[in-house]
Queue: 4 jobs
Job 1
Amino acid sequence: MQVLVYGAGQLAQMMYLDGAALGIDVQAVDVSNNTVVHPVSKQPLDCSLEQAIERADVLTVEFEHVPEALLETAEQSGKLHPNKDAILVGADRVREKALLERLNIPNCAHRIVTDLTQLDECVEALGERLIIKASRDGYDGYGQWRLSQKADLPALKKQLEGLDLVRVPLVVEQMLKFDREVSLIGARNVSGDIKVYPLAENLHYQGQLHVSVAPATNSDDALTAKALEIFSKLVEGMDYVGVLAVELFQCGDTLLVNELAPRVHNSGHWTQAGADTSQFENHLRAVLDLPLGDTTNIGGDAAVSAMVNIIGCDDHDLALLGLPGVHFNWYGKTVRNKRKMGHINVTASGYKALGSKLEQLSGYLSADHFPELVDEAARLQ
Ligand code: ATP
Ligand code: MG
Ligand code: MG
C-alpha cells in the first residue's frame, strides 16, 4: 500500500515510521517545489508528482497550508483524504468559523474584518481585550496581534496598515479568560468508524505548544462526552476521513472550539509511546479504510503520558534516554529560534509519578529552553 503525503516535515516522517511496520510505504511531497521525497532523508525519489499520485492508493496532508491548486489536483484523483473542503477549513479561519456557526458548535465571540475601520465596531461589540488573527497562513502564534486596551487601537491599526484584508481577512476574537487549553484528537475511517483519544491538556508559552499531558487532569466523563459530541458533529458535518485535531478552550464545564487541524497534531505526539495505537498509525488506518486501533493509554486505567516539545535548541543531554518511560524523537532539522526540533514522550503509572519523571527529565534539559517544565512537574506531583 502506498500513501502520498503533501508536506515533508516531521509529521510525514512519523507517518512513514509507523507505516513501515504495517507494510505501508509513505512518500512525501515537498510543496515548495513539487518534488516527491523520502519522508526521513528528504532526498528526492525517482518519480514525478504525477507518477506518485498515479501509483498511490491514498493522498493525504501533513499540514493544511498546501497550495489550493495542488489540493484541487489531488481531489480530482479521487484519492484525497481528508477531502479538500475539510483541509481548507483548517487553512482558513473564515471558513473555520463559518463551519462552527453552521454546525452550532460553541466558539469564541468574533468578527470578520475586511477593512481596518471595522476594528472600532469590534471593540464596541467584543470589548477592548482582543486577539486578532490573520485568517490564513498562521501557526505557532505567528500572524496574530493583541489589543489590551482601546487606547492602543490607533497604534494597532498602524501596524496592520499594509495588509490586504480583502484577500486575507482578519478574524478578531474576544480575548478569553479560559481555565485551560485541551485538545481532542480522533480518527474516522472511510467506513465511518470513529475513535477518539483521551483529552490532552496543553500548556502553551508565547503562543506555542510546549507540553501536553494525557489524559487531561480532572477530566470527568461529562467533559469527555462533550468533547466527543463536538468531534462527532465535526467529522460528520465535513464527511471527514483521517485524524482530526480539535483545539479547545475550557471555561468551567464549557468547551469552546479554538481551531481545527485537519491532520495529525503536536498535542497527539504522546500517543506514540502512551497509547495503544499512535495517531500516525491511526491516520494511515483511517485513510486506507482499515480497522482503527485502540486509542486508550497503555498500562491500565491510571496510566498517563506527557509530551515535551524541544523548541529552538539542540543542547539536550542524551543521557536522558536512561530514564525509564522516556522516549526521544528528533526531526533532523537545523536549529532556529522557536522551531520545533523534536519531542520527548514520557509515560508513567499516574500523575504523581509523571510529575516526578518530568522533574528528573528537566535535569537533562537547559532551563532556558524549557521555561515551564519544572512548574508543570510540580503541578502534577
Ligand atoms: P497553532 O500552532 O496551534 O496552529 P495558531 O498560530 O494557529 O497556533 P491559535 O491556536 O489560534 O494560533 O492561538 C495560539 C494560542 O493563543 C492559543 O493556543 C491560545 O493560547 C492563545 N489564544 C488564541 N485565541 C485566543 C483567545 N480568543 N483568547 C485567549 N487566548 C487565545
Ligand atoms: Mg493553528
Ligand atoms: Mg492553535
Note: The pocket of magnesium ion (ligand 2) is lined by residues 139, 259 (CB under 6 Å).
Job 2
Amino acid sequence: MKIAVPTERAEGEPRVAASPDTVKKFLGLGAEVVVQSGAGTHSRFVDAAYEEAGAKIADGAEATLKDADLVLKVRRPEGEELGLFKNGAAVLALMDPYGHEEELKRVGEAGIVAFAMELMPRITRAQVMDVLSSQANLAGYRAVIDAAGAFDRAFPMMMTAAGTVPAARVFVMGAGVAGLQAIATARRLGAAVSATDVRPAAKEQVESLGGKFIAVEDEEFKAAETAGGYAKEMSKEYQAKQAELVASHIAKQDIVITTALIPGRPAPRLISKEMVASMKPGSVIIDLAVERGGNVEGAKPGETVEEGGVKIIGHLNVPGRISGSASSLYARNLFAFAETLIDKEAKALKINWEDELVKATALTRDGAVIHPNFAPKGG
Ligand code: NAD
C-alpha cells in the first residue's frame, strides 16, 4: 500500500497533509509513504525530517503520485494533477465541494475516490478527524494576533507612572470554534471582550470564557440551531433587530473579529458600511469569512482596506498563516480517518462503504459524483 504526499499546488497554500509524526504512524500500519521533495518546506518540515521518519522522498508530482493507493492532500486535486492519480486511488482533502460541482465531476471522471474532510460528521467518534475545528481554532487565534499587530494601541489595561492605557475592546461575531478561540486569545492578551452568535448555546460558552454576550434573545433565537449544531439562516426581521443592537455596540469597539458562517450558504452580512463609519479611526476589523463572501461590507479577499481610518483585513487562508501548527493538526486529522480505511492485517486500503463517516464524506467513486448533496440531480 503506497501513500503519497504531494506538494500543494494552489497559490498561497503553505500547508502539507502529512507530518513526520504521521508518516511514522502510517509506517506502523505497514504502508509505504512517499513525500514529494519540498512538500513540507513552508511548514518547516524538511525532506530530511520525513526521511528520518521513514518516508521516501520523490522528485516531482508524477513520481510521488505514481501507483499511490491513497493520496493525502490539503486542497482538491485539479487540472493536470488529476491525470497523475492511479485509477481507483483514494484522496483525502479539503474538497471545498459547495458550488464546485463541475470540479467534483472532473475528479470523479479521473477515476479518483475522493473524500471531503470538511464533511466529517461532528460526532464524538470523529472528533479527532474534525479538520474544520482544528483549522478554525488556529484561525481564531491568529485573527487576534493579526488584529493586535495592526492595532496601534495596547490590548491590556496598563497602569504606568505616565498614565493609564485602557484595555482594548474586542467584539467577536460568531462564537463557533474560531470565535471561541478568538475570545480566549483576546482575553489572555487582556482585552475587554464581547461576542454574539445566533445559536443560543453560544451564550453560555462565551460567558464561560469571560466574554459578554450580545444578542436579541427572542423566540426565533431560542430555536436557531440545527440538529447538527450549526447556525440556521435567520429571518429578515431577526437580522434587522440584531443589526440595530450590533450597530450601537460596534461604534464603541476597537477590534471586531467576524467568523460567521452557514454551511453551504454565502456568509451572512453582519457589518454595513455605516457601522464601519461609526467606528473610531485606528480600529481594526478582521473578516475571517472573507473567502465565503464576507461578513463585512467592503472587505476584500486577500487585502487590507482602510475606510475612515478603520482597517478592514481580509486575509485568505488564515490557518495557513500559522502553517506549522495547522499542518501538524491537519495531518493528525487525516491519519485518524485514514486509519479507519486501512485493513491492518492485509496492509491494504479497505473502504467500508456502510460506515457513516465514509457515507458522509465520500464524494466520488467509479467515475461519478456519488454524494447525495453534490451528485447531478434527476439523472
Ligand atoms: P461555523 O464555522 O459554521 O460558523 C461560525 C459561527 O458563526 C457559528 O457559531 C454560527 O452559529 C455563527 N453564525 C452564523 N450566522 C450568524 C449570524 N448571522 N450572526 C452571528 N453568528 C452567526 O461554526 P463552527 O465553528 O464550525 O461550529 C458550529 C457548531 O458546531 C458549534 O456549536 C460548535 O461548538 C459545534 N461543534 C461540535 C463539534 C463536535 O461535537 N464534535 C465539533 C466542532 C464544533
Note: The chain has a mean pLDDT of 95.
Job 3
Amino acid sequence: SYDNLAGRTAIVTGAASGMGAATARLLAAHGARVALLARRTDRLDDLAAKITADGGQALAVTTDVTAPASVRAAAARVRETFGGADLVVNAAGVMLPNPVAAGRSDEWARMIDTNLSGALHVIDAFRADLAAAGAAHRPADLVNISSIGAHLSFPDYAVYGATKAALTHLSEILRTEFGPLGVRVTNIEPGLTGTELGDHIDNVSLAAQLDGMHAAIPALTSEDVADLIAFTVTRPARVNLRQLIVLPTAQS
Ligand code: NDP
C-alpha cells in the first residue's frame, strides 16, 4: 500500500489527461496534496473537483511547460497554497511522428520544447523545493516519463525518439547531481498506453498505424503507470528505482 503519501506535496505536469491525470488521482487518493499542471483549464478544474469530492486536496494551475515564466508562476502559486513540493512528476509530452524529410520544423519545436525543455523548466522551478525536502531527510522525488521510444528504431518517430532518449539520459546524469542532495530521480519508459497522446498526429497513415497497434494488443492503461509511480515514490528514502521499463505483455 502507499500509506506514506499523506503530508507530501506533488506537482504533476500533463495532469489534464492520461498518465498525468491518473497519477494525480492516485497520489491524492493516498493523501498527497497535488498540484495539477497543464494548459487545458477546464480539464484541470474537472479533475480538481473530482479529487476534492473524493476527500483529497488538489490545486489546478493552468501552465504551459514550454514557457519558463508560466512554470515559475505555477511554482509560486503552489508554494503559497501548499508550501514546497517534494514530489515532481514530468508527464507533459507530445508525440508528432512524421518522416524527417517532411521538414516539419513546427512539430520538431513542439516536441523538443515540451518533452525536453519543458521538463527542464519544471525541474528548474522546483529543484530548490526538492533539495530542501532532501536536506530535511524527507522523501523527495523527481519522476520523468520518458518512453520505450528512447530505445526503439521506430520509422518516422526519429524526433520524438530523440527527445525521449534525451530525457532518459538527462534523468540518468541528473541523478548523480540530485542523489547526493537526497533527491531521487526516476525515469520511466512505458510502452503502448491507451491515452490521448496519438490524437494530435496529423499524418493519416501514421495515425492509422498507431490505431492498428491498439487494435492488435491490449495496451497499458494510465492507471498501470500511475501505480508504478506511486510504488516508486513510497519506497524507503534510501531506495531509488532509477529506471523502469514497462511494456504491455504482448508488445514485442
Ligand atoms: P496525453 O496526451 O493524455 O497526456 C499528455 C499531457 O501533456 C496532456 O495532459 C497535455 O495537456 C499535457 N501537455 C502537452 N503539452 C503541454 C504543455 N506545453 N504544457 C503543459 N502541459 C502540456 O498522453 P499520455 O498520458 O500518454 O502522455 C504522458 C507522457 O507519457 C508523455 O510524455 C508521453 O510522451 C509519454 N508516453 C506515452 C506513451 C503512450 O503510449 N501513451 C508511451 C510512452 C511514453 P494540455 O494539452 O491540456 O496541456
Note: The chain has one domain: 9-246.
Job 4
Amino acid sequence: LAEKKPKVVFVLGGPGSGKGTQCAKIVQHFGYTHLSAGDLLRAEKNSGSENGIMIQNMMNEGKIVPSEVTIKLLQKAMVESGKDKFLIDGFPRNEENRAAFEAVTKIEPEFVLFFNCPEEELERRILNRNQGREDDNIETIRKRFKVFLESSLPVIEYYKAKGKVQEIDAAKPVEEVFEAVKVIFTPKVE
Ligand code: UP5
Ligand code: MG
C-alpha cells in the first residue's frame, strides 16, 4: 500500500543519437540506474529464450517488439536492481508501448529527455560504431529511422503537449551535449 513508486526518466531520440553514451555519463554524475530497452532485448535474444528468434527478426527489420515482452524485461530489471531512480533508454517507442507501460506499472515519467539529431549524422555515427550490432547496416539504419519518425516521434509529441519534454541538440560533440544534459539534471536553487 505504502509502496514507493520509482522515479523514471525516458531517454528518447533517433538511432545513434547518443542515448547510451549520455546515459552512461548521467549515471556517473547523478546516480541514476540506466536501463536500455534495446540492451535488455539483445540480452534476452542471446539467452536462448523462446522469444529469441522473434526479437532477432524484429530488430533486424528495425521493428518494435511487442510491449508485453519489453515491459516484462524492464520491470524485472527495475525490481532486481533494488534501485529507485531509472533512466529508461529507447522506450517507449510507440503509443502502444507508452500506454501499456503506464497501465501496467502506473508510472508516469518525471520528464522525457529527447536527443534531437539529423539523419545524416545518425547514419555517420552508426556506420562508424563497429560494435558488431546486426542492425548496424545501412538498410536497417534507414528502417530504424523511418520507424522513429512514424512511431516514436508521436510519443515525444504526446509528452510535449504535457510539458514534459526536455529537448537537446544532440548533433554537437559528446561533451557539449552533456553540458546541456547536466543543466537539466542539476537541481535548481531558488
Ligand atoms: N556518439 C554518441 N554521441 C556522439 C556525439 N555527440 N558526437 C559524435 N559521436 C557520438 O551512440 C551511437 C554512436 O555514436 C556511438 O559510436 C557513439 O560513440 C557515437 P549511442 O550512444 O550508442 O547512441 P544510441 O542513441 O544509444 O544509439 P542506438 O543505436 O543504441 O539507438 P537505437 O534506438 O537504434 O537502438 P536500441 O538499442 O535502442 O534499439 C534497437 C532495436 O531494438 C530497435 O530498432 C527495435 O527493433 C528494438 N527495440 C524495441 O523493439 N523496443 C524497445 O523498447 C527498444 C528497442
Ligand atoms: Mg543505445
Note: Helices lie at 19-30, 37-46, 52-60, 67-81, 95-105, 119-129, 138-161, 174-185.
